[in-house]
Amino acid sequence: MRVIGLTGNIASGKTAVSDLLAERGATIIDADVLSREAVKRGSGALEAIERRWGPQVLADDGNLDRASLRSIVFKDQSELDALNDIVHPEVLRLRDVGIEAARTRGAQLAVCVIPLLFERHHTGEFDAIVLVDAPRAMRLERIMRDRGLDETEAMNMIAAQMPADLKRARADHVIENSGTLEELEVEVGRLWESLGGNGVSRLDTANAR
How is 15-83 classified by DSSP, letter by letter? Predict the structure, then answer.
C-alpha cells in the first residue's frame, strides 16, 4: 500500500482535493477529523487543554469551545505550539490506527491529510507529498467567507503556518487550486494517474473515510 501525505496551508482546498481522491477510491485519513476526535469530551487531551487555559475554553456542554481557544492560540505562536504539543501525539496514534486498518483491509492507496505536515517534520513518513496551493489573497477571502472571521483573525491563521513557497519546493506534486471546480478535477485526475491510482479499485471508496 502506498501512503501519501496531502498538505496545504489553510483554505488552500485540501478537503476538496481529498474528496475528489476519495471518489476515485483512495482511503482518506484526515488529521482535522482525528484532531476533533482527540479532544472529544472526556479525553485526556481536552483535560490537558482545560488545565492550561482554564474553563473559558469549554462550552456549556463540556465540549471544546473552538472559537474561544482559537482566539488565544492564534495570537501567540508559543500558545499554538503548546496546543499542538497536547493534541499532536493522540492525532498521530489515531492516524497510525487508520493506516493499519487500511492496510489490513487491502487498500492500495491511503492519503493522509495533514495541514502541518512540513511544520511537524513528517515528510519522511510518506511515499510522496502532495501540496495544495492557492494565492494568499484568495485564501484570506475564503477564510473570512467560510469561517465568518474578520481580516485580523484570518491573517493570524495564515501567518501561523510556514509560507507556501517554502513548501512548494519540497513537495513531490503541487495542485493549483485557484480556478474552477472543473479545473481542479482535471488536476486531481492527473495526480491520480501519477500516483498509480488507476490500479486502485473503486470498491474501496465505501471505506474511504
Answer: HHHHHHHHHTT-EEEEHHHHHHHHTSTT-HHHHHHHHHH-GGGB-TTSSB-HHHHHHHHTT-HHHHHHH
Residue 58, phi then psi, degrees to nearest 5: -110, 140
* Spatial separation of the C-alpha atoms in residues 132 and 7, rounded to whole Å: 6
Hunting for cell 499532536 — which residue is that?
88
pLDDT attached to residue 191 = 97
pTM of the full structure: 0.87
For residues 18-40, give the mean pLDDT.
96
| Mean of per-residue pLDDT scores for the chain | 92
Domain 2-198 CATH assignment equals 3.40.50.720: no
Ordered by start, the domain boundaries in the chain are 2-198
Q: What is the share, in percent, of the chain residues with pLDDT greater than 70? A: 95
pLDDT of residue 33: 95
Return the C-alpha torsion angle 81, 85, 86, 89, nearest 10. Answer: 150
Which residues partner with 131 through β-bridges?
Answer: 7, 174
**For 115-135, what is the mean pLDDT?**
95
Element housing 132 (H / E): strand 128-133
Compute the C-alpha angle 67/91/22, nearest 5°: 90
Closest among 54, 112, 52 to 80, alpha carbons compared: 52
Main-chain dihedrals φ then ψ at residue 179, nearest 5 degrees: -115, -145
Q: In the predicted model, is pLDDT for residue 198 greater than 90? A: no
